[in-house]
Amino acid sequence: MTISFQELAKKGKPIVPVIALPSLECALPLADTLSSCGFNILEITLRTECALDAIKLLVESRPQLVIGAGTVKNTLQLQQTLDAGAQFIVSPGTSAEMIAKAREYNTAVVPGVMTPSEIMVAENLGLDTVKLFPAALAGGTDFITSMAAVFPGMKFFPTGGVSEDDVNRYLALPNVVCAGGTWLTPKTLMEKGDWNKIHEIAQRC
Length: 205
Ligand code: 3PG
Prior knowledge:
Helix content: 40-55%
Distance between the termini: 34 Å
CATH class: Alpha Beta
Low-confidence stretches: none
Mean pLDDT: 96
CATH superfamily: Aldolase class I
Structural class: alpha/beta
Strand order of the largest sheet: 5-4-3-2-1-9
Number of helices: 11
Bound molecules: 3-phosphoglyceric acid
Number of strands: 9
């Protein structure tokens, strides 16, 4: 059985910060800043070296949060993120092998899609949510709307080009479970440790 991402998403705001952490030291102050604004579901991407350590640290020290791993591209990375304690896995693409492995561990997985064929793969493997990526380039809200009739049970988690200005247009769609992006956690602000500014951005959402 595979854990439903839709169920997991109910534990927080429908906006998921997608985070490329510049250093491990940023993990706790950033997570605390975001959670103080109601962001309980965080995606830590494997784009920086400290990502696995950060996932482990956050899972162990902030049990009230839901910590996922993003940019997971192969089964080795998937295993590493599961070992670190990731509670959900997000991938830029769709891999039946990775979905099967996540299922073995009873962990929610959200594969990236840009076409109906990829959505069919995810649906036929029993998943209830896919990541539309890169959402803006894939057709944004129009694409998601046009998939509703064909995939009535499938929900979308759009990321990639989603911004503060248009996130609410995505969230207004009935088949969008949540939306995400890096706009909440700009690299320069994380590097400077400017948690006040990140708090300001988060509060606007
Ligand atoms: C992702 O990994 O989901 C995206 O790269 C986030 O895209 P953004 O940087 O355009 O928000």
